[in-house]
Amino acid sequence: MILQSKAAVVTGSTSGIGLAIAKALAREGADVMINGLGDPGQIERTRAGIEAEHGVRVLYSGADMTKPSEIAAMVAEAEDAFGRVDVLVNNAGIQFVSPVEEFPPEKWDAILAINLSSAFHTIRAAVPGMKARGFGRIVNIASAHSLVASPFKSAYVAAKHGLVGMTKSVALELATHGVTVNCISPGYVWTPLVESQIPDTMKARNLTKEQVIEEVLLKAQPTKEFVTVDQVAAIAVFLCSEAATQMTGANLSVDGGWTAQ
Question: Hey, which residues are catalytic here?
Answer without folding.
Answer: 156
